[in-house]
Amino acid sequence: MTETSIGKTVPGARLSAASLLEKIGGLDLIIRLFVVAALCLALTFATPKFLTEGNVLNVLRQTALLFLIASGLTLVILTGGIDLSVGANLGLSGCLAALALKATGSVALTFLVAISAGAAGGLANGLLVTAMRVPPFIATYGMLWVLLGLTYWVMGGDSVHGFPPNFRILGSGYVLGIPVPVYLMFVFLAIGGLFLSRTRWGQEVYAIGANPEAARLSGIPVQSRLILVYTLSGAMAGLAALVFLARVNSAEGDIGETLTLPAITAVLIGGTSLFGGIGTVGGTFIGALILTLVINGMNLLSVHTNWQPFVTGVIVIIAVLVDRLSHQK
Amino acid sequence: MADVSLAHRATSRFEIRAPGIWIILAALLLVFATTTPRFLSAANLTNIGLQSSILLLLALPMTLVILTEGLDLSMGALMALVSMIVGLTSAAGYPVPVSIAAGLMVGLAGGILNGLLVAKLDMPPFVATLGTLGMAQGLAVVLTDGQSVVDLADAIPAIFSVAVFGVPLPIWLSVAAYSVTHYILYHTQFGVSIFAIGGNRDAWKLSGGNVDRCLIGVYAFAGVMVGIAGFLFTSRMSAGHPTASLGMEFDAMAAVALGGTSFEKGNGWLFGTVLGVLAIGVLRNGLNLLGFPSSVQVVSVGVLVLIALFIDGLRSKP
């Protein structure tokens, strides 16, 4: 630990401006913040509905949900992997949690069910990728359908709705005029940022993504770190499921289906490279904000919601292209 | 070149490459034949064949895609778009051949787009095809605001049940599709380059192989097959449907995995995919007859793939 902090402060003393830029995420981050500013400016001029208190809080709340799903996914993508099952994992853990809440009324048990169900799905992904050596995109894509099938099996086409107010605070409550999920987002932004930049495990995640073979040779337990990131991604999907349930106040089999593509898109717009080793959780926050602003703008400008998958599909391809052009020589 | 053609000869020889799929197929047949009286009836076996024919049209090109270490996630969504285009052109009064041509063109265009993204822009296949999945799904829903198109020309539903020499047309089509794919994979330069790209892309590039052209070819071929599958699907449903085919690429991928094609190193077996498709057809049909919902079927397909991977993993471990 001491070595890394020395390594960071010494060049910083010499080239303070450049190092400051590096510390906050480099030129990439500045460009992304400009995109956010430009989107906000454009939407402010385009529609008077954008810059209202209700809408701004709504954008923040949507960003928070997307960020929670995408933050765990960021860790997976940093290792050079992918988790295509986050949305389905959110769906299953959300439905199980909703059933537990309805049956017992215990908020603590609901939390336990959602997060452990999510983590279990993630753990299964991790084991497939490591022990059975299935490429991540295939393992997690297969898991997507298995989890979706399990969800429909559990729910049997029914829906669960009407949760107690002490649970609903999590998704629709306010503290000092700010939605509760937004606090949750900043807590996990801080935890994720510290984990990646200040802990040994976080550094190892980058090392695995940059060069798995070199990481293995330098003594990093690659297999168990991979299992860890997939499990964390699943657990975050479980947590996001709770926020989602508390917000919409109902659970159906299909709640997670449309969330995977936006989550991946948010991570990629945030500058995390699909090829591993490059990216930050802070970037993912900006990415989630950009995507949410685009979707919010489309809603405010009365573009039909049917267009959202198309637009998200185009954005994800553009994001990978930018990644390709900026990180690969 | 020499070692490439050697590898290609070794993979084309008929041998028990994946014991898992034989065990699974035999076990499934045994279980359903003993538990379900109607299972072995001629009508039901024909039904399995008909259902499998559409899946085979997707699983064959999926095998080629996976051999190049890729994946095509857009198949089900592209099929939905094809189905909508076939439905809308037919509902607008165009003759059936025009609908077929339009559907094939949409499939081909989607496939070429995938190929260009993967080859020319060097994007990882799963994310490129995830992007086109979103686009195709979005367009399919936008076209009619999510409504299915039912007023088709009578000839379109009729095509699915036409029998030639007593065998339904879709089954003939899937036999033809297998033959064409087998020929392409094992008897052409294109097939050699598919194995070579999966085996060692850089070596193939250095030895003068055209990787980009091969990849675009593979995804374009997948697009055409999706076009045919989309038309047959529309014919079977008697409707252009914007969502019913979503996720069919999961069954296709599962069939390839069941059939013993490895996801790495260009190690694959086309006939294994046929067995994989049959296993999934038998499983879904049997579970259907026993009254299990499709959610249970999806989970069972996943479990089946795990079992196959496990059996084959046991064998390949040193």
What would you say this structure looks like, in words?
The complex is a heterodimer of chains A (329) and B (318). In chain A, 77% of the residues lie in helices and 2% in strands. Chain A contains 15 helices and 4 strands. The longest helix of chain A is centred in the C-terminal third of the chain and has 27 residues, at 222-248. In chain A, 50% of the residues are buried. Chain B has a two-stranded antiparallel sheet. Chain B is globular, with a radius of gyration of 19 Å. Chain B starts with a helix and ends with a helix. Chain A binds chain B through residues 82, 84, 132, 134-135, 137-138, 141-146, 148-153, 156, 253, 261, 264, 268, 274-275, 304, 306-314, 316-317, 320-321, 324, 328, and chain B through 69, 71, 73, 117, 121-124, 126-128, 130-139, 141-142, 145-146, 247, 250, 253-254, 257, 263-264, 293-299, 301-303, 305, 309-310, 313.
N- to C-terminal separation of chain A? 31 Å
Helical amount among residues of chain A, as a percent range? over 70%
Order of strands in the sheet with most strands of chain A: 1-4
Mean pLDDT of chain B: 85
Walk across the major sheet of chain B and give the strand order: 1-2
Quick one: biggest sheet of chain A?
2 strands, antiparallel
- Beta-strand content of chain B: under 5%
Which residues of chain A sit in consecutive blocks of at least 5 with pLDDT less than 50? 1-15
Question: Tell me, what's the shape of chain B?
Answer: globular
> What share of residues of chain B is helical?
over 70%
- The residue ranges of chain B in which pLDDT falls below 50 over 5 or more consecutive positions are 1-14
* Most extensive chain-chain interface: A-B, 42 and 46 residues
